[in-house]
Amino acid sequence: MNVEIVDLTRRFGRTEAVAGVSLQAGPGVFGLLGPNGAGKTSLLRMLATVIQPSSGTLRLLGRDPGSYGPRREIRRRLGYLPQNLGYYPGFTVAEFVEYFALLKDMPPGRVPAAVAAAVERTGLGDKARAKLRTLSGGMLRRAGIAQAIVNEPELLLLDEPTAGLDPEQRVSFRAMLRNLGETATVIVSTHLVEDVGAACTKVALMNQGKILFYGTPTELTARADGTDAAGDAPLERGYSAVLAAARTGAGAWS
Amino acid sequence: MSDIGTGATPPPDVDLDRVWIGVAAQVWRRQPGPAERTAGRLLRSPGLARALLTTPSLLLPWLIASVAVLAVGAVATRGTGEPLVALLAPGVAGAGIAYAYGPGIDPAWELSRSMAVSDRMVLLVRAFAVFAVNAVLGLAASFASGTAAALTFGWLIPMTAVCALALAAATVVRSPNAGVAAGLAGWTITLLSGQAATGQYTVVLSASALVPVYLAVAAVCAAVVAYATRLPKGTT
After folding, report:
1. How far is A66 from chain B (nearest CA, A)?
2. Over its length of 236 residues, how does chain B's per-residue pLDDT go in tens digits?
3. Interface predicted TM-score (ipTM) of this complex, two decimals
4. Domain residue spans in chain B?
């Protein structure tokens, strides 16, 4: 298992952003769904080793991120796209991706080819030498994705990766996710249930720091059966049905 | 891409995507400058060297501003006889240290914290480099201003304390502005205290009795920085 979480919590002052989450994940594409403030980003940041858990057990790629050596090893094999991607406006796309390839401790000799491959894979080849300040929001997002995949990560964490992408780019991005998920564990936090339906093999639905549902997109869709849950698509209705059931206290996943 | 210019069909065993990636890698390859190559050799880490070269307070506009402030100080020192360079240098260096690394000042700070090259190392390397550069600039300005030898070097130890205070505040509060404010406030209070006690600002630079105090402040602040950037526990 690439991700093993047992009873993980994260508190910010009195607020419990993640409240006792347990989860295991091997290779595949995992969707993390939930309303705003559900705890998705906090969970992803803990998996990215950016913040530490308040309690619980976390093992990533078979290692304990609490120790320096294993954490460094995890980070070498990790790809992370934060919700708010910060960037250096004066860098070109290729320089930006190269910067993070170097910070990921990739062997310098491998970096140029890895950068070129990541930039091409995200469809930014014709913008490789363009300054980041000249790019649109969607292109910046793709530059962020390029830096996340430059080291061919075994664990890829993407927070709202399709924000700003146009429909055509989202379709090709989902194909890329499916491809990456064949060998790596890809965890995608998103508001867009259609992304989950198209790309994810498993989905977890979070609310108020807890996981309410964990299963396949088909199983999530089935949760809407026999209910009058709102939604324009079957998966959306399943999403609404699980949240509605949680509000009435009728079904938390364990 | 396969037949541009020739109209030829490639042999079946040629992976054109791979060929193109190889070409693109060479075309887009960035050549590190001499400073980055030297830093990479010294630090034994190309990633750390690259992170050092992106330090906001080591970029050209910041360095030009620092040189301008110290140059004005040197000219004013020559004109008035007051050791303004010695009074300015710790403040300039403290601001530079606070703006070396952190949220709000480093655009990719969140992302950098998930990288194999530890952000603690980035912080330390950047802080050391900013300190060294400011010490050199301050010394040059000090010599140019023609102040007494005691004052030429007298501000180095107070500068260490001011820089450590600015770094500690910036690290604990996670705000470079808080670091600048703490460093400047600490230095201003020190200067005003010297003025109030003896009637002259320069006593805080020349009094040997204050050296252990400055060193103690620097040591405490360094401990605070070490604690604030300690390795997080991943599990319980």
Report:
1. 3
2. 434 445 567 677 777 888 888 888 888 888 889 999 999 999 989 999 999 998 989 999 999 999 999 999 989 888 888 888 888 999 999 999 999 888 778 888 889 889 999 888 898 999 999 999 999 999 888 888 876 655 667 788 999 999 999 999 998 888 889 999 999 999 999 999 988 988 888 888 888 888 899 999 999 999 999 888 875 544 43
3. 0.86
4. 36-228
Beta-carbon count within 10 A of A40 CB:
28
Residues of chain B with Cβ-Cβ distance to A103 below 8 Å are: 47, 50-51, 112, 115-117
Taking the CA atoms of residue B44, residue B50, residue B56 and residue B57 in that order, the dihedral angle to the nearest 10 degrees is 30
Q: What's this model's pTM, rounded to 2 decimal places?
A: 0.86
Cα–Cα–Cα angle for A144, B230, B43, nearest 5°? 65
How far apart CA A33 and CA A43 sit, in angstroms, is 12
CB contact under 8 A, A57 and B236: yes
DSSP B119-161: HHHHHHHHHHHHHHHHHHHHHHHHHHHT--HHHHHHTHHHHHH
Give me the amino acid identity at B204. V
* Chain A residue numbers touching B106 (CB-CB < 8 A): 86
Task: Kindly determine whether residue B233 and residue A52, on different chains, have CB atoms separated by under 8 Å.
Answer: yes
Q: CB contact, 8 Å: A102 with chain B? A: yes
Domain boundaries, chain A: 86-152
